[in-house]
Amino acid sequence: MSGSRLPRLVGLLSLLLAACALPFVLSNFRLFQFSQVYIYAIAILGLNMLTGYNGQFSLGHGAFYAIGAYVSAIMMDRWNIAYGWTLPVAGVLCLVVGFLFGLPALRLEGLYLALATFSLALAVPQILKYFEHWTGGSQGIVLSKPNAPFGLKLNPDQWLYFVTFAVLVLLFWLGANLLKGRIGRAIVAIRDNHIAAEAMGINTALYKSLVFGVSAAYTGVAGALSASVIAYVAPDSFNVFLSVTLLIGSVIGGLASISGAVFGALFIQFVPNWAQDISKAAPWAIFGVFLIGFMYLMPFGIAGGIRLLWIRATRSRVPQEGRSAVPTQAHTTT
Amino acid sequence: MDIFIQQVVSGLATGGIYASLALALVMIYQATDVVNFAQGELAMFATYICWTLIHAGLQYWAAFVSTLAIAFVGGVVIERVVIRPVENAPILSIVMVTLGLLVICNSIAGWMWTYVQKPFPSPFPENPFKFGNIVFGAHDLGEIQVTLLVLLCIYLFFRFTPLGLAMRAAAHNPVSSRLVGIRVGWMLALGWGLAAVFGAVAGMMVAPVLTLEPNLMGGVQIYAFAAATLGGFTSPGGAVLGGFIVGVVENLVGTYVGFIGTELKFTVALAMIIVVLLVKPTGLFGTTVVKRV
Amino acid sequence: MSALLDVQALEAFYGRTKALHGVSFSMARGGITTILGANGAGKTTTLRAISRMVRTTGTLRFEGEALERKATEDVVQLGIAHAPEGRGTFVHLTVEENLRLGAWGRRERGSLKDDFERVFGYFPVLRERRRQAAGTLSGGEQQMLAVARALMLRPRLLLLDEPSLGLAPLVVREIFRILRTINQTGVSILLVEQNAALALDLADHVFLLETGRVVMEGPSDVLRRDDAIRRAYLGY
Fold first, then answer.
1. What is the ipTM of this complex?
2. Domain spanning C5-234: which CATH class is it, in words?
3. What domain range is A162 assigned to?
4. Rounded to two decimals, what is the model's pTM?
5. Segment A25-32 long-range contacts (CB within 8 Å, at least 24 positions apart)
6. Cβ within 8 Å, pair A324-C57
């Protein structure tokens, strides 16, 4: 086991070091884009926990992202609270809201949960506009980017890059511990066969609601970070398209995967830009082609694709997979 | 009372459109467990094709029927070419492909025909019909007739033809269907073809009202989701009935409840979805699928 | 006269798991052959291999024609009808619709009236229930429906997977009696059964499978009389 651990650890450390070096190499705009990537990655990891590991379909995670963003914005704008404190507040608030949402969601399976969350996502911009007094209505709330503390020689974009990166590393580390341990196994067991899980003594209702809460918390923190990075929140930024984008990132990256969240975030941040470069006239058509192409090549996401390649490279050849009429269960694992 | 009847009929007309699109969604869902998010956009695309045919000189009904044929072939081709490569992939991956189709359709339509709104002709007379004090729009009545005719044809097809039976079997039990020699893949393709036809009907009926533009079907699709949720995603008949109910309720609420303006346009649909999911998720006529563990 | 069905070195896979390890046998035209064995021996898998429902290596020939590259639907068109494990009833469709579907794979088009009469002759209860949803039939009736549906194909080979499963002894005996009659009209039968006694009674030839391999084969009356074999493999 230590044989495969060491190269992985070295690889991870090199990535971390490279990431820390970027602010001194890239332009502010690029740093802004990468900060967005980290933010999306956190949000997508939250979604992965719920949909990938626990099997509860959510088409509405944009709502938690919005809650996090607005909580942070209101705290900073109205009460002059430092952005750093808004993160845990957003996280805890979304944890509670997510948990509360998870309770009635227990009754809904697959398609029906997707419909419920989809409806939630559709309603978000309207709700935000309705509570004008708090949210600033359609105009939104304009914020300012924080400066680096302790007089560090970093501009706001560089500083925010480090902040988002630090939060990413922390939350991913926490998430990995959660998902690879007993709790993670229980969560996956519930996804694969919740009746058997229940029979084994796992309190499925409690776990499912908790996963909803934690998942919402992650996405809420991501939203809160985005308020600082973009320095602006407005209702129309949090429409159903955001929820769908997060789900796309999740599936493309690899649903039941931690690294997948980063791959997915890279996809949703950069592929639309590439699509624009390829075709000014119909950029979304190009995006759609990318989306479909990725699903053809890697139906289990990028992380799944990498894993398959790794398995093929390290094991002996086995007869080609054919299609059988007898249904076999296809599931993803980290 | 007169206004009530007028609004009900008007609601039935829009309901017919929701019913057609909802039927398309449910047909594919029943056979594959996949919600085709691109259904509305495909319908919009078909409507543009009809527009093009009419502007090339074709008479309305000739263009209408030709569009249905083109939509059918298009649906079959899309299933065989675009969906088939991922048919064994996880459900969400297939959903992603339909999302890809959605944006591709929308984007290409905008590129080919621009985002400028285009008027779309209605085959029905301009003058409304009067029954005493009650006024009915000719387009509304015509819409209801067309929708009912299409639905009737489909019902007869599924109930009484061998091919319809084979399609029902393939949707219901693909493994046993293979064992009696049914080519399930092609049945699925036919299902997509028919779904595209329903979508096209919905698109061509709603375009005169909303004017033709690439985002024509966005709102309609949400109402179709509400209809399918209400009627039951596992019940084609339920989806149709759900469509009519949603149409009528939407109209009545719009008429009688003051503060629902265009901003809260989807509120009725969303409220219905949430209520149904809280009370009986499988809808009025849906059944919970009992799976062996 | 060549064998009706010839299987050589058949291996079958579920994903990466091998379920059959080189099964070989042949079946004569017009006979009844039974495959016996404990749970998990690979009996159902053998039938599925013939119906092309699992990935296989090895050769499979039906009336001289190779089956390896064919899909399930093609195999049906060749005249092989498979009544699967669990019956595979179309539960939401009526009995009549189920039967109609059975004839779908038939090469010869034409009226189904005679076929309906024939199967109703074998199983009168199905005529009574023809307009009922198939899911409302009892276990025994659904088994009859499964056999009837297979017969609608006018098959040359009938594959039956555990027809006795979950049925009362009287019902099973009735079904087996009818199977014998069907065989006499020229339909060859390949029967998978756990109920060895009944199967040995019906069949002329027997194969015994154990963890994916053929461990014994021979005429049924020989195996029936060998005490040691009976006790070791057939449990009685």
1. 0.90
2. alpha beta
3. 27-239
4. 0.88
5. A28/A155, A28/A157, A28/A158, A31/A157, A31/A158, A31/A160, A31/A161, A32/A157, A32/A160, A32/A229
6. no
